[in-house]
Description:
By secondary structure, the protein is mainly beta. The N and C termini lie far apart (55 Å). Helices cover 7% and strands 12% of the residues. The protein has helices at residues 39-44, 55-59, 171-174, and strands at 21-24, 30-33, 84-86, 92-95, 141-143, 145-147, 168-170, 184-186. The protein contains three helices and eight strands. A hairpin with a 5-residue loop joins strand 3 (84-86) and strand 4 (92-95). It binds zinc ion (ZN) (2 copies). The chain binds a DNA duplex (20 and 20 nucleotides) through residues 4-10, 21, 23, 25-27, 29, 31, 33-37, 41-42, 44-48, 60, 69, 71-72, 74-86, 96-97, 118, 121, 126-128, 202, 204-207, 209.
Amino acid sequence: MGFTDGADGANNLPESPVNEFTTLSSAGTLHIQVKNACTNCQQSCKKCDEARPCLRCVKYGRGEECIDSARRERKKGAKRGPYKKRDGKGNIIASSGSPPQEDEPESSLPTVPPVPIPVGYTPGLCAQYPLPPGHKPGDVYYPLYYLAPVPQHAGQERESATQYPPQLFPASFMTPYSQPYPQYILHPGPGVQMAPHYSAPGSVTACVKPPEPQDSSET
DNA sequence: TACCTCGGACAGTCAACATC
DNA sequence: ATGTTGACTGTCCGAGGTAG
Ligand SMILES: [Zn+2]
Ligand SMILES: [Zn+2]
């Protein structure tokens, strides 16, 4: 074998055309990071590469699902407070603009109210994201693939590099505009057939936590 | 043995802030 | 206008668990 997934992250991907960032971490570990991991690797929190399909997807025979994950827009307008000038050695010189008061979390609340809805995120993805505001226990989110009628011309003119399972389209493909939840689509309701969490044999469902019951403290 | 699961460290990006 | 800084966001390392 060339590599084992057990050491998935330890793959150096010698054949991958990755030449984006080659940084040396403080631990002396070469840390190469791609700009955009594919959805499979992203969900599995595993190393991806620039190739499509990526090595990992190829290895598991999921090259058809190997598409770039959608990056969500960075939140804008967030206040940051005064800067702490540094002397170049990491030592904070002074807080420009404001007196050197103790950093009091209570009183230094951001001037902007907590934004209930940032821009969009993938709930439960790699256990990093909370459930979306407005999430209801009954709401069902579907990752990435959405079963939809296939346009007549679809599949004919499509590049071979981006082939999707029959009748399956990436959610992002279905949305002509930026939507709050790029990779998850709220179930449109009964009568509309959707892929029940499309997954190939040995599919990647890693890092996707089921919705936890909201704390009863919620009113 | 191979793959999955998961928490968290690491790293890149970018807009607000500071200064000229 | 330009540089600096902080925070946000994404990637994936690595240990532990599970199944064949
Ligand atoms: Zn990948
Ligand atoms: Zn992939």
